[in-house]
From TrEMBL:
EC top class, as a word: transferase
InterPro entries: Protohaem_IX_farnesylTrfase, UbiA_prenyltransferase, UbiA_prenylTrfase_CS, UbiA_sf
A Pfam family per the record: UbiA
Keyword DNA-binding found: no
Organism for this UniProt entry: Benzoatithermus flavus
Cellular localization per UniProt: Cell membrane
Protein name in the entry: Protoheme IX farnesyltransferase
Amino acid sequence: MAKVGEAGVGAAMRGTAAAPRVSELRDFWTLLKPNVMQLVIFTSAVGLFLAPGHLHPLLAFTAILCIAAGAGASAAINNWYDADIDCRMARTRLRPTATGRIDPAEALAVGVTLAIFSVMVMSLALNYLAGALLAFTIGFYVFVYTMWLKRRTPQNIVIGGAAGALPPVVAWAAVTGGISLLPILLFLIIFLWTPPHFWALALYRNGDYDRVGVPMLPVVAGRKRTLDHILAYTVVLVAVTLLPALLGQAGLCYAAIALVLGGVFLAHVVRLWRQDRDVLAMRVFRFSIFYLFLLYAGLVVDRVLPTLVLG
């Protein structure tokens, strides 16, 4: 693995020279990006619930714990690698590796340890396919997105989004030992959701990325082209969210939920596309999180509702 440049780490340390160099438990928790982990855990739990078959509750908990640990491992290694730019960006300057409360080498050690632990436990407690998929997810996020794509191409989020889309597939494999149509659709939904979600944030934080030389789409292509991309991806996303119902993997309840949510999300995006204001970009970003949460919750409701109605 490449090392963080000494100048970058030094800048982070100099910028917070007065800060105490004592790592606390909360610093290590922050290192794992718990806000991101919440959505990973939820989408994985939905994949686990929808998968045919049954897992003992302890094994189900173990599967979710391994996926969460894998997400935390990816975040910790990302903090290690990006310490040189995180300290110069408003959005990330308070990360523990950016403030100097956790040394980047410590973050790397935590990440590698968690990655090995999560993959080993998933493989031994559940099955080797789930373990292999989890290892691929972590590796893809670290090597493909963080180290290769992020600082080289405006397509970083498009391609790198595959890592965030895989957790429900990993959970499905943990139950079934295989992959079928529905987990592929779950993957596609998150994969297509990621670009408009993150590009909306990139519009708001455009100055941050420009300052550190990260070629996010607004920096490289400008705001107008980014808005066009957000709109195009959102239209495709809304269409793809209907596929589970159209292909017989979900019912009319989910279809109705997907249509309503898709319409609201598209309305937010169209307003941003027309007016291009930072406040609207943040509104799209924030709503997109609720959108994905509610969409996946709709799959659960669709599966549970007939049982509740019919007794």
